[in-house]
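Components:
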Amino acid sequence: MTDTEPALVALDWGTSGQRAWLLGTGGRVLDGRRSKRGLLAVTEGIDPGDPAARAAAYETAFRQACGDWLTAHPGLPAIACGMVGSAQGWTDTGYRAVPSTLDFTGLVPVPHRDGVLHLVPGLRIPSGDRPGDVLRGEETQLAGMLDVLTGPCTVVLPGTHTKWVRVEGDTVTGFATSMSGELHGLLTKHGIFARTAAEPVRDDAAFERGLAAGRRSRGLAAELFGARPLVLDGALAPASLPDYLSGVLLADEVAHQLSTSDTERVVLCGTADLCRRYAAALADRGVAAVVLTEETTVRGLWRIATAAGLVHHTPERTPQP
Amino acid sequence: MTDTEPALVALDWGTSGQRAWLLGTGGRVLDGRRSKRGLLAVTEGIDPGDPAARAAAYETAFRQACGDWLTAHPGLPAIACGMVGSAQGWTDTGYRAVPSTLDFTGLVPVPHRDGVLHLVPGLRIPSGDRPGDVLRGEETQLAGMLDVLTGPCTVVLPGTHTKWVRVEGDTVTGFATSMSGELHGLLTKHGIFARTAAEPVRDDAAFERGLAAGRRSRGLAAELFGARPLVLDGALAPASLPDYLSGVLLADEVAHQLSTSDTERVVLCGTADLCRRYAAALADRGVAAVVLTEETTVRGLWRIATAAGLVHHTPERTPQP
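Structure:
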């Protein structure tokens, strides 16, 4: 058996998009695809009260993504993480309660025409004494980072809904979600700042000024509005508004999340642009984060599939995504 | 001269709407109208780089609002406050720097076919050592409240962009703007919570729970997201989301604004619904606010027109808006 022999079909199937990989023995990526067939596109026009119609739509999208791989290699196991396992997904996998190990074994099988797709459940903190929270997809990204996480640490996964995850060994002990990314999108696309017509340009100085403003204690809703008088005074170019607002949001987020974190070690994992911003906001509070900008979800899918017995572990090889 | 004799045309001309009143001697409202001819509607389709075209559009809208009053009573003075005096308005009045008395005399005249419309300038804190800020229209609302403001106080004017104004005697000494209202609109109209399809219903308990969540120190962007796991857990009805988010936003706003205020006396002036919410958020912090839900802008327009000599003061009469 060589590592170019197909061993697993793996999908990261989120809200707005979908990525599919054909992995060889040992986790090597043999082929990869990306499409916009996320939850929103798949369920468009489908009656939310008709699970059968929704399942059919997901199966069609699944075959579009990787039907040729399954036909060429009958019996190939398949795994998927992300919103495909949500209440609006193919099947609702539910959540595993925190604390939870990242080496999952409880995958949720979804039968389809050519076999079974195994879905990775999300993680959940039940609402109660402490605030509840949920994540889905990030558990797999985290599983793909386990080899590089040492000791207790806080992993920051920046995005529309940034996750601040507390990891000890191979276990998630807690997490919190901050929707700064969504707020930034809403403010720059739909609000009063969206009316300030100007093509955004990158302005690191504006971002730094936003960080400084966000450090003040006038409250997020006041500091965000503070961009407006700056523009009216000619002290901030309209094209620099997005970077300024990003600074205000991240300074506020980082200040609050660090204050509730009891670890000194912070690991950032995400796109280069978001990691740069969060690293600057963390540095502003005296925290030097370890930054990983590599893809870890495919590695996590391989690891979870291995732990669940879908593929055979080959200990002599390190996964090579 | 009786108080049914027309003495002034007064307009509150904002971003999304316009109100016009015909006032008699002493400030009595003889007639009133309301239209959607605000800045957005008036300037729609007008080239922003063509001030003459914009002025013509404003003059047309002005005549639609009160041309009959001006024709019936030639020479009647006219005054307007609000965004009509902004950079996208009829004429940019600029701003008066804070500290500033609320008994204005420096109105900005705009000639039109039948006379002159006098515009009330806004107030501005220049960006510098302390954060800059602007307001426009609220200065007139404040002028209309002067008779009931005693001693130093903080006046809260709730809205899309809530103003927290520090008033001493007849002078505004400082203010801050919080865009909680805009954030609430963006979150419930365009964001992830907007996808939770449910007709909103009033839920005071959900608002109170939002207040309690907003009091915690996890940061606004995290506490707002906290509504999502509550809905997923079945602990919050989707129809109650708007009230819950309102509570989270107002608790955060009030906590921060009170901490930077050095007055104990807080006066709230706005719509009954917003005053009720802010009063609850303030009570939650131990502050009993004085609440005014009456219309004060028309009273302010009369007061400013009197101070500016547009109309003759009749000291024996209290304005009766």
